[in-house]
Amino acid sequence: MKENGSVLGMYQNQKGTLRADKYQAYANYITKFIQEYASRGIDIYAVTPNNEPDHASYDWPALPMSHTEAQNLVANYLRPTFDRNGLDTKIICWDHSYTTTNYKDGSYPLEYYQDASALAATDGSAWHWYEGDEEVMSVVHKEYPTKDIWFTEGSGGEWGFPKWNTAFLNQASSVVNITRNWSKSIIYWNLALDQNGGPDYYYDVNQHQDSTNRGLITINTDTNSWDYNVDYYTLGHISKFVDPGAQRIDSTSLDNNIETVAFKNPDGSKVLVLANLVNEAQEVKVQWGEQSFRYTLLPESMATMTWNGNQVGNAASPIWFNNLESNNNFAAGEGASVATTDSTANLGGSKGIMLTTTQNGDPGTDKQCVIISSESGAAIDASSYQYLTFSVKDMVNPKSATVKVTFVDENGTEVSSWSHEKTVYDNWTRIWVPIAGDKGFDRTRIAKIKLGFYWQGNYAVDDLAFVGGYSDGIPQMNGNLVTNGSFEDDGSAVPVATGWNFEGGTPSATYLEKNSNAASGRFHLVHYSADAHDAYTWQTIYNLP
């Protein structure tokens, strides 16, 4: 069925992709697999077309598949075959790491979803933890919020993170951040292996030599006993307490050394998982509405807390850092200039700033950037919030760009990172960046925020705020409860509406929205058809009486 005639991803210098004439046969095979399991009382919840499609190895079975090949397989063969056979099994794309050689930072599902037929035929994306950052799952979720996300493989072994200390710290952080970034599941690869790390593929093909893989438990076949591994405990901190159907609720990590995730179970009980990633005890304050308690986390440890009851009081509402309406608390970094300008971001008012950079390259922390202080000029306590969010209009990069964000506390300590989300050329885009949490950085006293850009040119910036999550909106402005006020109409329209498709075959047909990057809700629309035309937008309104 494969181009190279081998189960291996690469064989005799040829990649083992699926032959074009075997797509239907492969769809039939997957369908039969589901039916046969069902006949034995086992319902298959979901399938992925293949495991790790960007992996083509000479020594491992694999079915490499580009996003365009997967679009064709799922939209034209797999989903139609499921439908003909009355199967409601979910189809999930990707099933690979957060970043890979050919698909950086979650780009595979983003490109895959741009095909309307594949998008409609697919229920979501699946992820592994071997490369990259969990936050790319949030980027994909933000662009396609109706498509679910599952974490489907994380394995332990001496090949990656050795037992206990190193593996514990990595996995403790992973299980917290996987669920913080929209995943509906956490699946470890091996439940149980023997004292030789088998049975597995490498163990079998290497004449039963020791494997370096590790299960949640190790079963000693010589003594008929077993041992619990580090993987058992890191997964157990969530799996033992979080029930099927639970919903993740907001929680705040005070720094990168204490990470948290919280859930509400179907019975209303709450679960809080904490991971202390440094080799020293740390005291935390857990606040739930107006109620709170303190707890000391042991060095390099995890803790899970559960409770019942109704919350008294509310969580912190979003607050402005600077909406840039009535102050000049900003300055230009080296190689840049900045000035007040009219803003059509339509979130925090009508004013913003225009940053002009005059050179290319990594801005570091002081170059090609705007340096923004708070509205009052005093440091801001952001310890109750998870994200900095701001609006940016990129007038430089048709292919989009990321933003270098540097947080500066009152002591002058600086922490920088690039945004995972990207700008959209000549359109206002809302960016969310996790608030810095490195040890030694005081997020209770954030004095300045620097926004820098790699490529020289003009960037409009507006409405910096601290929020708890993506869905929190921003602070109200002058009593306006609507957080995205209108369609944009500021002369930024282009002759050809990029990212949009024609409904029919001629230029007179109606445009349909196809640009997933237009997540901020503001577009310049031009209707080219003589027929009736429906245009849809959304508004989020908070705190109605």
UniProtKB/TrEMBL annotation:
SUPFAM superfamilies: (Trans)glycosidases, Galactose-binding domain-like. Residues 245-305 form the Glycosyl hydrolase family 30 beta sandwich domain. GO terms for cellular component: membrane. InterPro entries: Galactose-bd-like_sf, GH, GH30_C, Glyco_hydro_30, Glyco_hydro_30_TIM-barrel. GO terms for biological process: glucosylceramide catabolic process. The keyword Signal applies. GO terms for molecular function: glucosylceramidase activity. Residues 13-242 form the Glycosyl hydrolase family 30 TIM-barrel domain. Keywords: Hydrolase, Signal. Belongs to the glycosyl hydrolase 30 family. This is Glucan endo-1,6-beta-glucosidase. It comes from human gut metagenome.
